[in-house]
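Database export, one record per block. Field names are fixed; values are copied verbatim from the stored entry.
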Amino acid sequence: MATYVQYLKRNGIRSLPVATRRLHPASILCRRKKGFFEEGRLDDLLEKTKWSASSDDASIVVGTFTRKLSLKGKVSAKNFGLNISGGLQHASSVTYEVEDVRVKEFNDPNILSKKRQAIRNFLKTKEGEEFKNCFLAQRLWYATKFEVHFEGMTKTDVKAVMKKYLEEGSLTGEVRSDGTVVVAPRVTVSFGFTGKRLRGI
């Protein structure tokens, strides 16, 4: 199974340090000190008409991956839409094994070709000039089913912590007999994106 970094590299995905449910394939993502952050939506800036996009019904067949993070000195873990903000004092690390990856992309695959001249004209304006080196997120990547393993915690510890986080928000899941947590977000949060620089469209 590939590591998180290997998976990103293999599929040309740029990681998102902060992802929200409002992200859309039309989002403009600019590089800042800590990574890529949304600075606006191209469809809104161009014409105030939203470009429709949707998620695939089936898993993208590009393999699975794991991500292991140290929790020493930390009491929270935030990844793939599961945000645990307390109760992890005894955990030394957390490993995510992502089993199901899906994407959200434009319903019209030719939308950028149709809008190319409008995009180029926009980038010549004073407002558009600041975005020319930013990226357009043409495809967002989601982990829609994954297992979470906490090292250093007993099954009882894990159950106590997860009771809160699996009952609120948009998460469903279970704690297995070995303390492994199986999570299936109903509303997913993207972990990365693929796309082009606006000046290159």
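Remark 1: The chain has a mean pLDDT of 90.
Remark 2: The two ends are 34 Å apart (CA to CA).
End of record.
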